[in-house]
Design brief:
Blueprint (H helix, E strand, L loop, with lengths): L12 E4 L5 H17 L4 E6 L5 H14 L3 E8 L2 H14 L3 E6 L8 E8 L3 E2 L10 H9 L12 E4 L4 H12 L10 E5 L6 H11 L2 E5 L21 H10 L3 E5 L6 E5 L2 E2 L2 H13 L8 E5 L5 H9 L2 E5 L4 H11 L3 E4 L3 E8 L2 E5 L2 H14 L2 H12 L1 E2 L3 E4 L3 H17 L3 E5 L5 E12 L6 E13 L6 E8 L2 H18 L3 E3 L1
Parallel strand pairs: 2-3, 2-4, 3-7, 8-9, 8-10, 13-14, 13-15
Antiparallel strand pairs: 1-5, 4-5, 5-6, 10-11, 11-12, 15-16, 16-17, 18-23, 19-23, 19-24, 20-21, 21-22, 22-23
Helix pairs in contact: 1-2, 1-4, 5-11, 8-9, 8-11, 13-14
């Protein structure tokens, strides 16, 4: 039986350019706009990043939207996903029934393309996440043989000027930062030829930061490989330049600008540790004395979580996944969130609305502002980082999904044989979309406690790439953590003939 192709993934739509023809992409837009009609959307914002496949997808989407009678606002400039969210936020002030469609494939290799979705009020949706099930409903319409998107007269298109200056000014105000306030800080900025480079260079220059850029020009060919700064060894060029320039920090950004890595001349920092000064800044503005919920994904290291709790934050475990974690932020009133993959989430106000989402410039400005006020923060994070081991996510690709599943089961068996504690669901019953592993870590008393020797791991299949197992390890020291990593790598490479990929 032939397997039906499907562009809908867990967090968005994502596919290889050669995998779907124009008619299939058109069908995806028809299903997406059919869903839009069902939830009362009458206005669309269509944006794109620098990825080569975006132009074709965008053109098809424009035609479908206008023929279906939607009011369409289009920004043709390659922009970051956070800036695309801002365009949608601006639009929704005047047109409450606005859906945002961002054409991007994030950090994936150049042959991929896709769409990220928001619904009113700039709420990210995913599979079984959002009104009427979000992308689950889109998928249903995509495969429904008798579904036809009705053509309606009155469709219109307005070309939107890139509002990068508005975005920068908005974010400076949000961070409580004045122009030139970060004067004297020196940063190596590596944007991997993604769309966020010009935006961030412009903003950080305004802030007074001394910048040495790497891979700044947007280039959808991504000549240095997948635009993912969190992959192993991807930040080596930035580290080398930081040593040469005696820079304070390195910052890496992925292809669509919503994934961030920070570090110094010795290497990258864990997102969990980076979150500490950011949380201090956010919590200082929160009224009341109660605990403020802050979400984290299964890869954030336990030592960082202990430090979050010391700040009067309540760390809450939630599954890996951008749409789902933002929806859970809104549902629970969490003030922020962090994923070790480099995603940082905030409450973003504009007018009467508050959006739970990403603004990478805001994250960067909060972190740099804390460092400017106290440069010892860099040393403190480095000391914490050097106390533990973090593997970074290491990924293996297999010939098919059956081999992948057998390989993942064998990895999990390693931990079972070590008598580690395994879980696939959070405390409130949410599916963690993978297996979380703890050894020497206790939460029985209601707060996290670490034994002298401990490790945590997260093992899952890739949601947007075929045949891939992703593994992440944090541990009390290199001997424990790297020993586990080597054992898993040998297993996946030798027994299952996996290929290590970015």
């Amino acid at each position: 039986m032939t397997k039906v192709k499907d562009p809908i993934k867990t967090y968005d739509a994502r596919w290889e350019v050669s995998e779907f023809d124009d008619q299939e992409v058109q069908r995806l837009f028809e299903a997406s706009l059919g869903y839009a009609r069902m939830i009362g959307v009458d206005t669309l914002v269509l944006t794109r990043d620098a990825r080569l496949g975006c132009a074709r997808v965008m053109e098809i989407g424009m035609n479908v939207a206008i023929e279906a009678g939607f009011r369409l606002f289009v920004c043709f400039d390659p922009i970051s996903t956070p800036l695309s969210y801002f365009v949608t936020m601006q639009t929704i002030v005047n047109f409450p029934g606005t859906m945002g469609l961002t054409v991007t494939a994030s950090h994936n290799p150049k042959q991929y393309v896709g769409i990220k979705y928001t619904v009113p009020t700039v709420e990210a949706i995913g599979y079984d996440c959002g009104p009427m099930g979000g992308l689950k409903k889109v998928k249903e319409l995509y495969h429904q043989a008798d579904f036809v998107l009705a053509k309606v007269e009155g469709g219109s298109m307005t070309i939107v000027q890139n509002p990068v200056d508005d975005y920068i000014n908005y974010t400076f105000n949000l961070a409580g930062l004045a122009a030139g306030e970060l004067k004297g800080l020196s940063v190596i900025l590596d944007t991997f030829n993604g769309s966020a480079g010009p935006e961030l260079y412009r903003a950080l220059t305004k802030a007074g930061v001394i910048i040495a850029p790497l891979r700044l020009a947007p280039n959808g060919e991504f000549p240095s490989g997948s635009p993912n700064p969190t992959s192993q060894n991807k930040m080596e060029s930035a580290i080398e330049l930081a040593i040469k320039n005696d820079a304070d920090l390195i910052i890496g950004i992925d292809g669509d600008g919503d994934r961030i890595v920070f570090g110094d001349h010795k290497g990258v920092f864990s997102a969990g540790f980076v979150m500490i000064p950011i949380l201090k800044s956010i919590l200082s503005r929160v009224n009341g004395t109660g605990l403020s919920r802050v979400l984290y994904d299964p890869k954030v290291n336990p030592m960082a979580l202990l430090k979050w709790a010391e700040l009067n934050a309540e760390p809450v475990l939630f599954r890996n996944g951008h749409s789902q974690i933002k929806a859970f932020m809104k549902e629970t009133g969490a003030i922020a969130g962090a994923e070790e993959s480099g995603h940082f989430y905030h409450q973003l106000p504009l007018g009467d609305m508050v959006v739970s989402g990403e603004n990478s410039l805001y994250t960067i400005l909060l972190f740099l502002k804390s460092v400017q006020q106290n440069k010892a923060i860099i040393k403190e994070i480095r000391t914490s980082q050097d106390q533990i081991f973090t593997s970074g996510e290491f990924n293996f690709e297999f010939g098919d999904d059956k081999i992948r599943d057998n390989a993942m089961s064998a990895v999990i068996e390693i931990f079972e044989n070590d008598h580690a504690r395994l879980t696939t669901h959070s405390e409130n019953g949410d599916d963690l979309e993978g297996t979380v592993i703890y050894k020497g870590i206790s939460t029985d008393s209601g707060k996290m406690e670490l034994e002298k020797e401990w490790y945590a791991a997260y093992v899952r299949t890739a949601t947007n790439e075929k045949g891939v197992v992703r593994t992440y390890i944090s541990a009390c020291d290199r001997n424990v953590g790297f020993g586990l990593q080597e054992k898993i790598v040998r297993l996946l490479a030798d027994k299952f003939k996996g290929k290590e990929i970015e």
